[in-house]
Amino acid sequence: MVNPWLAMETGCDPAERTRTVRRAHAEFLADGTVAAPVRRVVADSWRRSAEARAASDGAAPIELDEAALCAYREAHPLARAMPVFRELLGSFAQDGAHLLAVCDPQGRLLWVEGHRGVRRSAEGMNFVVGARWDERHAGTNAPGTALAADHAVQIFAAEHYNRQVQRWTCAAAPLHDPRTGRLLGAVDITGGDHLASPHSLALVQATARAAEAHLASGTPEPGVFLSALGRDEALLVVDGERLRLGRRHSEIMLLLAQHPDGLTGDQLSLLLYGERDMRPVTLRAELSRLRHLVGALLHSRPYRLSRAVETDLGVVEGQLAAGHPRSALGAYRGPLLPLSEAPGVRRMREALADRMRCTLLATRDAGLLREWSRTPWGEDDLEIFEALVDALPARSPARTASVADADRLRTAYGLSGGATGGPATTRVATFAQPPRS
Q1: Where is the GAF domain (predicted)?
Q2: Helix/strand/coil for 432
């Protein structure tokens, strides 16, 4: 069976593949259709890129200046893994044909190393530290697509969504916190067409595993961690073992984690189903199936978890309580179980999003406000854009763009004035939330 994460099968002609994929790319940009030989992982990425309105030409945006970058990456968990990256990929990157890059979960490049001539060549497309290379901002590319798919992947030449990147080939693998399973970023090698081989993909995968093992050697004793931010299905990590939960089981685990003293069947049913008339057997059946998955972690009478369970929700709340909005924003991976309609989950989701927004608005920090505005859940948040306009210097090009965004949103919401200095009828905040039944 052909590995779908590899760019080309053995014996494929790179020049011919480039021509056919370039034609397919042009057709996709013209009418949105994707034809063979485009791989499914690439087709899915093109669609995500188009939906996010990523540029098909132009350079990736730079989000972190030198001062912010130095402080941020010094505190980043992957800083501890850099000796591993350099040991396993450093000589490969110094051979005059490749680059080693490491990014955070948002796709911001924290380290880009390699031969000076290759780095200089990559500067034209802003493949530099501080630049944002997730799919939303740079289109299909190995580090961005590895983050989106949470899987190691090669992206070959014309498979890149942005034409400026199509003379490069890259391979990247995601990196996870060995204790919590949380996505930390990705490691990437970028170079020419010769990287479209099984060797390069295996190399970055092995490097990612070695880096995670290195991080694990310095972490506390294993525990239980539940990740539910920005995920439709929660990830449960128990003593290093990862388990992806179904949607209802995700809701139950999250609710029990937030109620360590336990919940009666009636209490849990109310948080899951609201006032709907549900038979008790329905909840008991769900709990029975969950117990088969998590074993002794789930107790009953009352329903409770036998061990303390940390959550990414708790991490964000802790950073907010400690007065660290930048760390809180970095840990906020999106709305809590965004498709959940369970009343208890919905209240937690809305409370956390409101608290994040209020904290960011209070900081008046242009960098933090801009970062929120560039997320799917913040791109239609008028109040954030108005605050961003106020926080930016009067003659800043970024302020001009933010004024335009705020005016666009005010028009969409049937309001007038405000962002450009006219009288505002009201200040409204809107941000993406799942539809309510």
Answers
A1: 120-214
A2: coil
> Token pair for residue 2?
């052909």
Taking 50 as the threshold, does the pLDDT of residue 14 lie above it?
A: yes
Mean pLDDT, the chain, rounded, equals 89
The CATH number of domain 221-361 is 1.10.10.410: no
Q: What is the pTM of this model?
A: 0.75
> CB of 305 within 8 A of CB of 267?
no
* Residue 148 near residue 126, CB atoms below 8 Å: no
Pick the CATH number of 14-216 from 3.30.450.40, 3.40.50.360, 3.30.70.20, 3.40.50.150: 3.30.450.40
| Packed helices 366-373 and 397-412: angle between N→C axes, nearest 10 degrees | 50
Q: Structural domain boundaries of the chain?
A: 14-216, 221-361, 364-437
How many other C-beta atoms can be found within 10 angstroms of the C-beta atom of residue 437?
5
Amino acid at 156: F
Unique residue bearing structure tokens 């409204």: 428
Q: Classify residue 276 by its DSSP letter.
A: S
At residue 223, the pLDDT reads 84
β-bridge partners, 64:
none
Rounded to a whole number of angstroms, the CA Rg of the chain reads: 23
- At 418, the pLDDT band (50, 70, 90 cuts) reads low
Of the candidates 316, 387, 386, 315, the one whose C-alpha atom is nearest the C-alpha of residue 356 is 316
| CA within 13 Å, CB half, 325 | 18
Which burial class, exposed, middle or buried, applies to 117 when counting CB atoms under 10 A from its CB (0-12, 13-18, 19+)?
exposed
pLDDT of residue 429 exceeding 60, the answer is no
User: What's the CA gap between 374 and 59, in Å, rounded?
Assistant: 16
135-170 pLDDT, tens digit each: 999 999 999 999 999 999 999 999 999 999 999 999
DSSP code of residue 110? E
Q: How far is C-alpha 182 from the geometric centre of its chain's CA atoms?
A: 10
